[in-house]
Amino acid sequence: MKAKDLDKKFDEGKDISKYFDLSKMRHPKKEQQQNYLGPETLRARQNDF
User: Fold this and answer.
1) Taking a C-beta distance cutoff of 8 angstroms, is the pair 10, 28 a contact?
2) d(CA 49, CA 45)
3) What is the spatial distance between Cα 11 and Cα 5, in angstroms, rounded to a whole number?
4) Burial class (CB in 10 A: 0-12, 13-18, 19+), 19
5) Where are the alpha helices (DSSP H) in the chain?
6) What are phi and psi of 33, to 5 degrees?
7) Nearest 10 degrees: Cα torsion 17, 20, 9, 30
8) What pTM was computed for the model?
9) What is the pLDDT along the chain (49 residues), one digit of tens a residue?
10) Which letter does DSSP use for residue 25 in this model?
11) Integer angstrom CA distances of residue 36 from 33, 39, 40, 41, 42
């Protein structure tokens, strides 16, 4: 399907989710996030309570 046709269906309010393979969906921002829990972070968290 061409992008123009997909846009038209979307603008008409039709369900276009069937045109996408959601099983391969990713969240790039979440993949980039890293939580560092080093000693400094743990001490800071303990002081918050």
Assistant:
1) no
2) 7
3) 10
4) exposed
5) 3-11, 28-32, 39-47
6) -65, 135
7) 70
8) 0.45
9) 899 999 999 999 999 999 988 888 877 766 656 666 677 766 766 666 5
10) -
11) 10, 9, 10, 8, 10
Distance separating the N- and C-terminal Cα atoms of the chain: 56
**CA–CA separation, 33 and 45 (whole Å):** 19
3-state DSSP assignment of residue 42: helix
Distance, CA of 29 to CA of 20 (rounded, Å): 20
> What does the CA dihedral 7, 9, 12, 15 come to, rounded to 10 degrees?
-120
